[in-house]
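May I ask for a protein sequence together with how it folds?
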Amino acid sequence: MVDGRVRLTNADWEAAEDELSVPVAIVNDLEAVALSVPLLGSGDVDWLTTRASLTGRVLCLGIGTGFGGALWSESGAVAMEPGHDPLHYDEILQRRVTVEEVVSGIGIGRMVEQGRDVNAIVPAAFLRALTALVNREQPDAVCLMGGVVEARRDLFRCATDVGLPVGVIVHPHPALLGAAAAARRLLAMQ
């Protein structure tokens, strides 16, 4: 939102807050996904491990063009930018790379162009990043989602190695569920 005007980044829509007659708030996409956690039904998550309840602390990771995350807890959702976390030194690039440079659609596309073996590189990098996130955030469960996870679930099965319940959100619009929850909360505060 700039100067009271909101413009969607992924659709041709723009409006001013005073034109909408409702309060306007910006919600991070993965924060919205995390806000959907208590609203997800049993068929909305495909568990890679034993089915678990989505209570306590749930780490939501979105792997698409980028690598985003948010943590759900009873007190709400907190967005984070785990894609910017350092990952490892890359011999080909001759520098330290971030999680997003390897574990994302853009990163995978670049590696394919370079002739690198994404089937070996991505799972190892993802497990390293996930392990660091689990150690730092101490979640009770992990939920994955995003276009890359949908297209290449095989690259993320290693998530089960962290010893927590791990599921893939299969609800078609979890971010919209979460955004609606955020809107209801904002309207209730009026």
Remarks:
- The radius of gyration is 18 Å.
- The helical segments are 17-20, 29-36, 99-102, 105-113, 118-137, 147-151, 174-188.
- The first helix runs from residue 17 to 20.
- Residues 28-188 form a domain with the Hexokinase; domain 1 fold (CATH 3.40.367.20).
